[in-house]
Design goal:
Shape: globular
GO biological process, one term: inositol biosynthetic process
CATH topology of the largest domain: Rossmann fold
Number of domains: 2
Organism: Prevotella multiformis DSM 16608
Family: Belongs to the myo-inositol 1-phosphate synthase family.
Structural class: alpha/beta
Largest sheet: 7 strands, parallel
Protein name: Inositol-3-phosphate synthase
Helix content: 25-40%
Pfam family, one: NAD_binding_5
CATH architecture of the largest domain: 3-Layer(aba) Sandwich
């Protein structure tokens, strides 16, 4: 490893997950099994990917941990909040994602992970009705209670550092409002006056995490940290933030396939995406107000890859539609269909059909691991604010929209950003450019 200014990953790393459902328990179970040598963390970039460092004769391909000091799986301690009181073992069994043979060997560890009471407002997720909920008078009370949770967890588990990651449901859409979300002062005033219309519960988690010196990752499409007030808080506390929405199935396909159409200079007339899923996420998204939040996230991908302004002949009139359908028999085994209408030489039409039968939590679990480990790395490297290099893992990557910045959604450009950030933090030069 070259000389690097990144602080070493010493001591325990607490990963506090908001939500103890299918995604969270699949993530926790996989990490606990992997560190016992009973399974492989397949799909995790931090555990498997290799990056080239150096050029010509000095060229070598190294795992991330051989370039930068990453936290080891054996040093991870899990905590969680959830509206339902079941421990992580009960929740994992209930989720029916993993087989008994993949849960039972770590039963005791999972049973010890008991959800703390959630900061919850049913108006933001009407399909959920758990009773493991904090009794808070105001949004500011929520913040203070969550800060107390983080401090207590850190002390009780002897953690050196904490990362907070949202793996709970999609909240109803909260549009950015300059009157409440532009400055940190406005945000705090809204929280203290209990403005429930403009302050989502997820914002309370993010505020509490950053105030306690913990990186925060938003794994749903919620507005949460994607507002200037939170960027200001992240700058003030020198903490990394990342979001939004884990990029698992259909959007992963879209961010990887749309560049093929663009690079080949084929035209795109329309892209219709529809999904069926039956887990808790599907139940929540069956509510139109919650689906709208997801829709905004999913729709943003295509238009930043196939740009109308750059190529009006090819992308000037794309019809882009996204649908999610709640279908209980499928549970966590999501199915995504994509119908893509393209056109080629002399405008002749062609079609592409993609049918992705995926497992939502199996695809999401390694993303939680990578985002947590890389956010912790960024904090130790002194990187704070929006972590654009983590765009690779996210559906709707955060960017400074107040200055006209555009998100990078092209998967291969995102991968370049990720590799260059790892190189830089490892003391190597960033030697790939995004055109």
């Amino acid at each position: 490893m070259k000389q690097t200014n990144v602080m070493p990953a010493e001591g325990k790393l607490g990963i506090m997950v908001v939500g103890c459902g299918a995604v969270a328990t699949t993530f926790m179970t996989g990490v606990l099994m992997a560190r016992k040598g009973l399974t492989k963390p397949v799909g995790s970039m931090t555990q498997y990917d290799k990056i080239r460092v150096g050029r010509r004769d000095a060229k070598q391909y190294l795992h991330y941990k051989d370039i930068v000091p990453l936290a080891d799986l054996k040093d991870i301690v899990f905590g969680t909040w959830d509206v339902y009181p079941q421990n992580a073992y009960q929740a994992a069994v209930y989720a029916e994602v993993l087989k008994a043979k993949d849960i039972e060997p770590v039963r005791e560890e999972l049973m010890a992970i008991r959800p703390m009471k959630a900061a919850f407002d049913r108006n933001y997720a009407k399909r959920l009705d758990g009773d493991n909920v904090k009794d808070c008078q105001t949004r500011w009370d929520m913040v203070l209670e969550l800060q107390k949770d983080i401090r207590n967890f850190k002390q009780q588990n002897g953690c050196a550092r904490i990362v907070v990651i949202w793996a709970a449901s999609t909240e109803i859409y909260v549009p950015y409002d300059e009157q409440y979300h532009k400055t940190l002062g406005q945000l705090e005033m809204a929280m203290k006056s209990d403005d429930r219309a403009h302050i989502a519960p997820s914002m309370c988690y993010a505020y509490a995490a950053l105030a306690e010196g913990c990186p925060f990752v938003m794994g749903a499409p919620n507005t949460t940290v994607d507002i200037p007030a939170m960027w200001e808080l992240a700058e003030k506390t020198h903490m990394p933030i990342a979001g939004k929405d884990f990029k698992t199935g259909q959007t992963l396909v879209k961010s990887g396939f749309a560049p093929i159409i663009k690079t080949r200079n084929l035209g795109l007339a329309g892209w219709f995406s529809t999904n069926i899923l039956g887990n808790r996420d599907g139940l929540v998204l069956d509510e139109p107000a919650n689906f709208h939040t997801k829709e905004v996230s999913k729709l943003s991908t295509l238009e930043t890859i196939c740009k109308a302004d750059d190529q009006p002949d090819l992308y000037g009139d794309i019809y882009h539609k996204v649908r999610i359908n709640y279908y209980p028999p499928r549970n966590d085994n999501k199915e995504g269909w994509d119908n893509i209408d393209i056109f080629g030489w002399m405008g002749y039409p062609m079609q592409i059909k993609i049918n992705f039968l995926c497992r939502d939590s199996i695809l999401a679990a390694p993303l939680l691991l990578d985002l947590a480990l890389l956010s912790d790395l960024a904090a130790r490297a002194g990187r704070y604010g929006i972590q654009r290099f983590l765009s690779f893992f996210l559906k709707s990557p955060m960017h400074d929209f107040t200055r006209g910045e555009e998100a990078v959604n092209n998967l291969f450009e995102q991968y370049t950003m990720l590799k260059n950030a790892i190189r830089e933090m490892g003391g190597y030069e960033a030697d790939e450019e995004i055109d």
